[in-house]
Amino acid sequence: MLGEWERFDWSAWQERLQGVPQFTTVIDEQTIHFVHVPSEVPGAVPLLLTHGWPGSFLEFLGLIGPLTDPAAYGGDPADAFSVVLPSIPGFGFSTPLAAFDWPTERIAHAWVELMERLGYTKFGVQGGDLGSKISPEVARVAPDRVIGVHINGGPDSFNPVDEETRATLTPLELDRQRRIGEFMEKEFGYIALQSTRPGLVGELLSDSPAAQFAWIVDKLKAWSWPEEALPEDILGLDFVLANASLYWFTRSGGSAAAVGYAQQGGWGDVPADSGVPTSVVTFAHDVGIRATAEASHTIVRWTDFPDRGGHFAALEEPQLLVDDIRAAFRPGR
């Protein structure tokens, strides 16, 4: 696929991106890039969506139309959202990283400030991967502002499960526990490296486009569904190439590693429950366990798709994701 990347027309993607309303602002001394597309439907709910690693705001571009103008896509206008898509500090156009210290709580405060600057006093949050950590944290730092949280993938999936809880798990959840164990045994290397040597990762990925491409595509393949399929067939060749280009041209491999993995706090920590209504949708690749999620989230809706979709829900199952987001926020409108 490197040959395809060599022939990739980034200038055409730049022209496409020029049609998307994008802005930057400085929050807490850090440049923050974001997309902002207000809905023309009266009463639309402001919705802030947060990407993860090794993705970017590009994952969500295809959702903007269905979320902001549902009637144009066969939906109910009453389900309209005004969409805000920020880039996490250290990722993409939210670079260069002005300071190393950007734990989840600091990002959450920045997101609240961003929504304040946009004039949104009440809003919903959504995210997967890193976004599934950041979005609930926004609700923790501003529970009076956030009307609802929606997560794809399952929050706090890697928290330990005691024997009493394990006895209550469904066969689907027991299989997810098995896959969590396999992940920790066989796939944890990228986390260990990015969390302890982000500077080294940055030097390697900034020096070699082949390294940057392989570092990303390895996880795109492993985390999309089914695993044996090629990522370009599941996620689209254009996204795979554009996403890798965004990391390469912004030289953000190291800063994304630093913010995404080398911050304070550890796996297995149980955060406080914000009390904000939280909805979860878990697709086939992911490993959400409701019992562990309920320890730190007010779960009001849980949807499983055990035979469809992977980690990159916005690209793999966009209609199912949009439908679930719409359903999750209807009670709070």
- What integer value in Å does the Rg equal? 19 Å
Topology order in helix (H) and strand (E) letters? HHEEEHEHEHEHHHHHHHEHEHH
The CATH topology name reads Rossmann fold
**What amount of the residues lies in strands?**
15-25%
CATH class: Alpha Beta
Structural class: alpha/beta
In total, the number of strands is: 8
| Number of helices, where a helix is a run of at least 4 consecutive DSSP H or I residues | 15
Which CATH-level-2 architecture? 3-Layer(aba) Sandwich
Could you list the spans in which at least 5 consecutive residues all have pLDDT below 50? none
CATH fourth-tier homologous superfamily: Alpha/Beta hydrolase fold, catalytic domain
Q: What this model shows, in words?
A:
The chain contains 15 helices and 8 strands. The protein is α/β, with parallel strands linked by helices and 333 residues long. The chain has one domain: 3-Layer(aba) Sandwich (Rossmann fold), CATH 3.40.50.1820. It has an 8-stranded mixed beta sheet with strand order 1-2-4-3-5-6-7-8, with helices on both faces. Helix 8 packs across helix 9 and helix 9 packs antiparallel against helix 12.
How do the helices and strands line up, and which of them pair or pack?
Blueprint: H1 2-6, H2 10-18, E1 22-27, E2 30-37, E3 45-50, H3 64-68, E4 81-86, H4 104-117, E5 123-128, H5 130-141, E6 146-152, H6 163-166, H7 171-186, H8 189-196, H9 198-207, H10 209-223, H11 231-250, H12 253-261, E7 277-282, H13 290-293, E8 298-304, H14 313-316, H15 318-329
Parallel strand pairs: 3-4, 3-5, 5-6, 6-7, 7-8
Antiparallel strand pairs: 1-2, 2-4
